[in-house]
Amino acid sequence: MPRSSKKEPYVFPQLLEKIMTAKETGEQRVIRTWSRDSMIIPDMIGLTFAVYNGKKFIPVYITEHMVGHKLGEFSPTRSFSGHSVGDKKAKVTKVGEE
């Protein structure tokens, strides 16, 4: 369920301070954060965040299409490695071979 429209988007206060200082100084360094639930606001456009996914920091460059989403959406926590070969129920055979 999304946040109430009466409330402003939630951004972690210390993260908001880092965003404002980066915008004022014009620095292009990566901002490390653990706040996956912070919403992306227009002030973040053009900045790069290193979002923690529980194991490592994933770099996320913010574009205008990401505004309104949360930082955690762009830093996956699970990696799918595929199904094992033994899980196939029916093996495909060439025509004419049995």
Quick summary:
With 98 residues, the chain is of the alpha+beta class. The protein has 1 helix and 3 strands.
Description:
This protein is an alpha+beta fold and 98 residues long. Helix content is 13%, strand content 13%. The chain has a 3-stranded mixed beta sheet with strand order 1-2-3, with helices on one face. The longest helix has 13 residues, at 13-25. 11% of the residues are buried.
Topology:
Elements: H1 13-25, E1 31-33, E2 48-52, E3 57-61
Parallel strand pairs: 1-2
Antiparallel strand pairs: 2-3
Strand order of the largest sheet: 1-2-3
What's the pLDDT, averaged over the residues? Answer: 86
Q: What sort of overall outline do the alpha carbons produce when their principal axes are compared? A: elongated
Order of SSEs, N→C?
Answer: HEEE
- Report the sheet with the most strands, covering strand number, pairing sense and barrel closure: 3 strands, mixed
Helices, by number, come to 1
Q: Count the beta strands.
A: 3
- Poorly predicted residue ranges: none
Assess the beta-strand content as a share of residues: 5-15%
Q: Using only CA atoms, what is the Rg? A: 21 Å
Q: What is the structural class?
A: alpha+beta
What is the first-to-last residue Cα distance? 54 Å
What's the helical proportion of residues? 10-25%
